[in-house]
Write a structure and sequence with these properties.
heterodimer; A: mainly alpha; Fumarate Reductase Iron-sulfur Protein, Chain B, domain 2; Rossmann fold; 4-stranded parallel sheet; 22 helices; 8 strands; B: mainly alpha; Fumarate Reductase Cytochrome B subunit; 12 helices
Chain lengths: 447, 219
């Protein structure tokens, strides 16, 4: 297998991140001790204790981690190595750690772990390493030390109930604009706002209206062709994304999810269908709903993969001709390892594309994109670490490319952005697409 | 010498068994009580089917992705754990002791097999030691306590092996063997050897999460 090319190595520079630097400057050991113990005693219980006392330090989780595999198997990048450098030390020192220790801990927890949960499949005891890293993020959040870029998105969630500072009128304006655009192609198309009693509320992440409005256009086109009875909210509650989940700001996570569910409930829809996004699925389906006390989502959640599966299986999207270029499939962690959609993803891919080439490992064992878990949201200061930390993904993609794959299908926004950075850095010359892009391209449209 | 032997195999054995059984019960009950108090949601997701699916996969050699990726380690760790349990429980000399004291007996291993199993345990301990010393990812997370735990596990087998073969110092080795066994029993609930108690629970919980919510494999 050919090695993927790498650009000239750039010296890693000291990262300047105001969210961390200013936060650290305000810390004292007393304050750190108080906060750590408050979290450990008040917010954790038998789970944390049992995980810590059961781990026998065997290192078997190491090779699950793309960071470890990509950084020449340096043990400081292994999942257990990251736990050793963070929460073990906090517990051992009973919270009495230095501000500099916290600086390293926040870097590890936020920019060296994607919470992809692959290591949990490798641990013989099933220790939830992502949960432990999540507790480190929670502690850092309570200490006021979170990378600035991702903290900004949480501020946006808090103020606007969406991730991208989309203002009240910008949202319906964007939808109206996309509706007008799409009506050139589909004369009867509507993006129905506030339609009470519709079958489906379609929710998206805020980057879609902010700078990927064509995705809303495509979704509307698919709904139109498939004859779906759908709606979108005109006000808050349309954004299903959730960066607060990744910063440990559980209180804001709860507010966002409640707004989302309450909006669906106000519209009296039967189900929520969400766009091709993985972290949002994790938040709505797994994490946020539980934080609010619902053991399962109060309104059924359908990820786009599942929705397209349903439409294609029911022959509701007429296809002109299948997508010709050979594709490979990237299984997003949050919907495949976290939602069991691996086989449906394959059904959809085979229904749409002539040639599907698997990458290895695949399905729930796929390597992470290195963008999710809030890592890409920590912004440009950490981009180099992120792409270098996923050389193993470049090798995996390169292998699929040498077997003929030209297009990567990544049905998740974070994966999409992360893989784009990887293909650019390692000169992979592959295209990345959402299922929506392909369906829109190959479906029959009115003359 | 005989007095010391009587002491370690009499009152001290009682203490060891009481601490082992009492300590184990305490650790497990305390864990469940704490879950009930602080994280009762965990019970909502526990599923017998998926707990068993997870546990059975992980206690079967090569039945999980990671076991298949690490064939040597898999063979060693399974051989080690099986011999670690089977040889002391079914050793003729041990069953005889139970028989003499309590008049209960069960099936026993031929001495030759028990001897081989003991060698397997000792060789596995050497393997784990070398792994700790040479594999960077293991060495990075190794503490002094990890070596101590390994020593605690190896000691009863080394002393038992030497005592059985009576090459030298039988009486003192016998005393050391009994002591080493007692130390190991007591260490189980109070050190990371407690993975013996907790791993079925952590496995069951993760198996349930993956089965009920994530609908994918944790193995």
């Amino acid at each position: 297998m050919a090695e993927p090319a790498t650009k000239n190595p750039v010296e890693e520079q000291k990262v300047v991140d105001e969210g961390i630097d200013v936060g650290i400057s305000r810390l004292t050991e007393d304050k750190i001790e108080k906060v750590i113990n408050q979290v450990l005693k008040g917010e954790t219980g038998a789970r944390l204790k049992t995980y810590v006392s059961t781990c026998i330090h065997c290192g078997l989780c190491s090779e699950a981690c793309h960071y470890y595999m990509s950084n020449d198997k340096d043990p400081k990048w292994s999942p257990v190595g990251k736990i050793k450098q963070t929460i073990w030390e906090m517990i051992r020192k009973k919270g009495r750690v230095s501000p500099e220790f916290i600086r390293r801990a926040v870097e590890i927890a936020h920019t060296e772990c994607n919470q992809c949960r692959r290591c949990m499949q490798f641990c013989p005891f099933g220790i939830d390493i992502a949960y432990l890293i999540g507790m480190v993020r929670r502690i850092c959040h309570k200490l006021g030390v979170t990378p600035r870029y991702i903290q900004d998105t949480v501020h946006s969630h808090s103020v606007t109930m969406n991730q991208m500072w989309v203002k009240g009128d910008e949202w319906p304006d964007t939808l109206q604009w996309q509706e007008e655009e799409a009506r050139g192609e589909f004369p009867k198309l509507r993006i129905p706002l506030e339609k009470e009693g519709a079958d489906i509320m379609y929710s998206v992440i805020a980057p879609e209206p902010k700078f990927q409005a064509q995705l809303i256009y495509q979704a509307a086109a698919i709904m139109e062709v498939a004859g779906v009875n759908w709606t979108m909210p005109a006000d808050k509650g349309w954004d299903n994304s959730d960066m607060a989940m990744f910063t440990g700001d559980n209180e804001i996570m709860g507010r966002i999810k409640r707004t989302h569910f309450e909006t669906a409930s106000r519209l009296r829809v039967k189900r929520i269908v969400m766009g091709e996004c993985g972290h949002a699925f994790r938040s709505v389906y797994d994490t946020g709903n539980r934080w609010l006390g619902w053991s399962q989502p109060p309104i059924p959640i359908v990820h786009a993969i599942d929705f397209y599966y349903e439409l294609l299986k029911g022959n509701r999207i007429p296809i002109k001709e299948k997508f010709k270029e050979p594709v490979t499939l990237h299984d997003p962690c949050n919907v495949v390892r976290g939602g069991g959609l691996g086989e449906k993803l394959r059904y959809v891919a085979h229904a749409l594309c002539e040639t599907v080439i698997e990458m290895y490992p695949n399905r729930e064992y796929n390597y992470c994109c290195c963008a999710g878990g809030g890592v890409i949201n920590c912004g440009p200061p950490y981009k180099l670490k992120r792409v270098k930390g996923n050389r193993v993904k470049a090798e995996q993609l390169m292998d699929a490319r040498t077997r003929g794959a030209k297009v990567i299908i990544a049905p998740c926004h974070n994966c999409h952005s992360g893989l784009k950075d990887i293909k650019d850095y390692y000169d992979l010359h592959m295209d990345i697409k959402f299922f929506g892009d392909i369906i829109y391209k190959i479906m029959e449209k009115p003359e | 010498m005989n007095d010391i032997y009587q002491f370690v195999s009499g009152p001290l054995a009682w203490v060891a068994f009481i601490l082992f059984i009492g300590g184990s019960l305490y650790r497990v009950i305390a864990m469940i009580a704490e879950v009930k108090k602080k994280e009762p949601f965990i019970f909502t997701y526990m599923s017998l089917k998926y707990s068993l699916r997870s546990i059975l996969h992980w206690i079967t050699p090569f039945a999980t992705y990671n076991w298949r990726r690490k064939p040597v380690l898999t063979v060693v760790t399974f051989a080690f754990h099986i011999c670690l349990f089977v040889s002391p429980i079914f050793l003729l000399a041990h069953v005889t002791l139970w028989d003499e004291s309590w008049n209960i007996r069960w099936w026993t291993l031929p001495d030759g097999s028990a001897d081989i199993m003991t060698l397997i345990v000792m060789a596995s301990c050497v393997f784990f030691l070398v792994r700790r010393l040479t594999q960077r990812e293991v060495q990075f997370v190794t503490f002094v306590s990890d070596y101590i735990i390994l020593g605690i596990v190896a000691a009863p087998f080394i002393t038992g092996f030497l005592a059985y073969h009576q090459w030298f110092g039988y009486p003192i080795l016998m005393i050391l063997h009994v002591l080493a066994g007692e130390v190991m029993l007591v260490a189980i609930p109070f050190t990371r050897l407690s993975h013996m108690l907790f791993s079925p629970f952590t496995r069951a919980y993760m198996g349930s999460e993956f089965g009920v919510i994530r609908k994918s494999k944790d193995y």
